[in-house]
Amino acid sequence: MNREHVLQVLNTIYEKIFNEGQADLYPGFVSGPYIQHNPLFPDGLDDILGYIKQAGRIPCEVKRIAIDGDLAFVHVRYLEWAGQETAGVDIFRFDANGKIVEHWDVLQPVPKTANNANTMF
């Protein structure tokens, strides 16, 4: 897997698809069968693509990316996810052709106060 290609795909997902609302770009980065681990979505591209299109823009800031073999981990600050600021980690598995074939995510609302001075980002 080409690291530069993966970084380019991830940059496009977060900048063009999420921040700018260009959902129609997403299918070009995915290969089937697309395995989805978020329990709100079935496997396949149709439902997740429908959600991204319906949402329009999903404003976010990528805080860090780690790549390990065929997996890419993205720590994201979603500025407004379901009406609130949310910390997220997306995990993508890429095939040998550089296409996304599997996705996991973990999402946590950012609380108004914390018991420490650290941020979630």
What's the SSE blueprint?
Blueprint: H1 3-19, E1 30-36, H2 46-55, E2 60-68, E3 71-81, E4 84-94, E5 100-109
Parallel strand pairs: 1-5
Antiparallel strand pairs: 2-3, 3-4, 4-5
Tell me what you see in this structure:
With 121 residues, the chain is an alpha+beta fold. It has one domain: Nuclear Transport Factor 2, Chain: A, CATH 3.10.450. Helices cover 22% and strands 40% of the residues. Strands 1-5-4-3-2 form a five-stranded mixed β-sheet, with helices on one face. The protein is globular, with a radius of gyration of 14 Å.
Major beta sheet summary: 5 strands, mixed
Q: Strands of the largest sheet, in order across it?
A: 1-5-4-3-2
Proportion in β-strands:
35-45%
Number of domains: 1
CATH class term: Alpha Beta
Number of separate strands: 5
Structural class: alpha+beta
Distance between the termini: 28 Å
Helix and strand string, N-terminal first? HEHEEEE
- In CATH, the topology is named Nuclear Transport Factor 2, Chain: A
Short description:
It contains 2 helices and 5 strands. With 121 residues, the chain is an alpha+beta fold. It has a 5-stranded mixed beta sheet, with helices on one face.
